[in-house]
Amino acid sequence: MHGPRHDEIVKSLVELLIAALPDGRDRIVATGEADLGHSTSSLTVVSPDGSVTPVASLPEFDLTLIKLYDDTVDADAEPWNTYTLTVQRDGAFTIALSYVSPEG
């Protein structure tokens, strides 16, 4: 499921989300879908009390996510089309890439 630039691109995605994390928030979560030349994302931030607030999408994040998708395709690796990336204020992160059939 990983292409040759996977780690480098994921690092860029994490850096973009850390930069977008407002003060006083513990983590930011990006979810969405990707395909050749296309990405959609939904971003939310989580406060220390657990409340969740949506934030504006980041065009640069979506463009970088397309690079991650293209890197996977270039490597002829296992396909994915949905993702969840959770980034903590300290830079710790988890990423889940999965394939969801368009037929449901």
What keyword list fits this structure?
104 residues; alpha+beta; 5 strands; globular
Structure description:
The chain is α+β, with helices and mostly antiparallel strands and 104 residues long. It contains 2 helices and 5 strands. It has a 5-stranded antiparallel beta sheet with strand order 3-2-1-4-5. β2 and β3 form a beta hairpin. The longest helix has 16 residues, at 59-74. It is globular and about 40 Å long. The protein starts with 5 loop residues before the first helix and ends in a 6-residue tail after the last strand.
Quaternary structure of the protein: single chain
| Biggest sheet overview | 5 strands, antiparallel
Radius of gyration: 14 Å
How widely separated are the two ends? Answer: 21 Å
- The helix count comes to 2
Concise summary:
The chain has 104 residues and is α+β, with helices and mostly antiparallel strands. The chain has two helices and five strands, in the order H-E-E-E-H-E-E. It has a five-stranded antiparallel sheet with strand order 3-2-1-4-5.
